[in-house]
Amino acid sequence: MQAEPTVLAPTASLAVRRAQQxxxxxxxxxxxxxxxxxxxxxxxxxxxxxxxxxxxxxxxVRAWEKIGSFQGKSAFSTWxxxxxxxxxxxxxxxxKVRVGKVLVTDDLEAYESPSRPHDPGIGIDLERAIAAxxxxxxxxxxxxxxxxxxxxxxxxxxxxxVGTCKAQLHRARKLLREMLGR
Length: 182
Hints:
Residues 126-176 form the RNA polymerase sigma factor 70 region 4 type domain. By secondary structure, the protein is mainly alpha-helical.
């Protein structure tokens, strides 16, 4: 029995369709369009700029390998975002003994995000506080409060119970309040 050919929704871009056919230039276009968002997500979840660069590369390598499985049921950027989360969480699961590092940077551009507060001072303090959170609590906070995932989705991605996810979010928020003096 042969598999049905992948049919993309009309909203799927020409670049995605061309990349699925092996067009490297089309994939490079998708890379340029999505690099900032993927890097920002990897940076927030890893808390380390160097590691975020490596993870971003891993995400795009995986995207190139799996672009044929993209069915167009959602936007390409949504599919890529989910892939990035899976790559980062998978890396963290494979290196459970790795100690999270605190990211301290004055490069505001590193945190490319439309939801960033307008006062740069507040943004820097918040980003540093988030980076200082324990890895599990940081990941849940980012995925839930910044990226909008539901507890059930986060628990499934992390391979934990929903209650654990909720407890980590509560812990992350409490630690943030303490760090920010609120």
